[in-house]
Input
Amino acid sequence: MKSLSGGIDAIETVAYDENGTLIVGNRIILASDETVRLGGGDATPYAAGDAIALTTGTSATLALRSLTVARVAGGSGYLTKFRLMTDQVACVAQIRIHFFTVAQPTGPIVGDNVPMTLLYVNAGERIGAITMPPLATSTVAGTSTGAVSQDIADTVFGFKCAATDTKIYYRLETLTAFTPASGQKFWLECLSDAN
Output
């Protein structure tokens, strides 16, 4: 116990991790990943509600992307910052990010340019979703090479990884109709306050 000014006592607390190592400071993980949509000249317009992915299809989960957000297998914590960027300057779409605990949920998570579905059978594997503000670019004409959306202070998103995993998995969904570029890139960054 330490004595503070004015005669007030404060209790010093310490924490140890699962290996008995003293924890000093926050356990912050900055996780990022890039989704690259279909190439080969594909620029098929998206309707509002379509999934954005590398491959198409509806009968099986295809190529969910991953973020390493936990320190240990089965770890948990909170995502406290979300930043999404694309390499298409003109893209002002609003994107929703769906998060899962497994790479292959029980019910199929659709592929590119297919209407996103919410399946009850995935209830135990679905963490939830966050709707990002619309993408926007810099007002400096002719110099920008991307558009960005970020949610830094508004959302605190809890997660718990599967027992043998340190990752969570995600699929993007556009809430705005737009025409993508062939091979368009979407870069997602999340800040994890890991337990």
Remarks:
- The chain has no helices and 14 strands.
- The two ends are 25 Å apart (CA to CA).
